[in-house]
Amino acid sequence: MDHDDTDNDADTRDTRDTRDVRARVLADFEGRWRIERRITQHDGPPARFDGQAVWSPEGDALRYVERGELRIEGQRAMQAERRYLWRADLSVWFEDGQFFHLVPPGGGDAAHWCAPDAYDVSYDFALWPRFRVVWRVRGPRKDYTMTSTYAPL
């Protein structure tokens, strides 16, 4: 019997890709996450934020609440918190009901204009369930990059 090694190699090779490369949906974010954030200011001291984010059900949306400690070089550490509402289409809204931005389900770029400042963001879901969000903020009195890494708890 003639044996073809190439067929055998294909049968025994592990071709599983453990990355979850599908588009994100709102339910993917529900739960508790660890956040590590680094803030690099163009002409100011570096800062870091370490804390937790929780996406919890609120009607047909998820309420996002992050809490943690903000440390700015040369200053005392302080407690920090922010809140948003995430809707099923991955739109993100401020607490006052104003639209913030739309998260690209497959990862990628989005933006928010808050005169006179421009907020450009990039979502990277390539290593899901860990993901990274990078904000580049520019304006007359703002010039910083904020990189946040999220990991499930």
How would you characterize the overall build of this protein?
The structure is a single chain. β9 and β10 form a beta hairpin. This protein has a 10-stranded antiparallel sheet, with no helix packed on it. It is mostly beta strands and 153 residues long. It has 1 helix and 10 strands, in the order αββββββββββ.
Summarize, please.
The chain has 153 residues and is mostly beta strands.
Tally of alpha and pi helices: 1
Structural class: mainly beta
Distance between the termini: 54 Å
> Which series of helices and strands comes N to C?
HEEEEEEEEEE
Measured as a percent range, the helix fraction is under 10%
Rg over CA atoms: 20 Å
What integer is the average pLDDT?
90
Contiguous low-pLDDT stretches (5 residues minimum) are 1-17
As laid out across the biggest beta sheet, the strand order is: 6-5-4-3-2-1-10-9-8-7
* Overall spatial form: globular
Structure summary, number of beta strands = 10
Q: How would you characterize the largest beta sheet?
A: 10 strands, antiparallel
The portion of residues forming beta strands comes to: over 45%
Which characteristics define this entry?
153 residues
